Amino acid sequence: MSKHRRQRAAPTTELRVGEDVYKTEEQIMRGWVRHFKGLATPKDDPSYDADYLRHVEADVAIIEGLAEEADEVDTITVKEV
User: 81 lies in a domain?
Assistant: First the structure.
């Protein structure tokens, strides 16, 4: 295990985000920024499964409803633990 920790991974020499290719260190950093911003940006994707989305939204609503109806949890002290 410690042997694996000492080995360094090969640096990224090329990054593809969408149709763009980033090759220099600075470009690759910008590419990662673009990639992670894209992950955090809501978008309408025609290939997205709308039925699955409806099921997930229904599940979330049920879970939120159960959480709101649940009794409050009693707080405990370190001494009680």
Answer: no
Task: Specify the number of domains making up the chain.
Answer: 1
Beta bridge partners of 16: 21
pLDDT of 1 strictly over 80: no
Cα radius of gyration rounded to whole Å, the chain:
23
Indicate whether 6 belongs to any domain. yes
Residue 37 lies in a domain: yes
56 φ/ψ angles, rounded to the nearest 5 degrees: -65, -45
**Does pLDDT of 29 surpass 60?**
yes
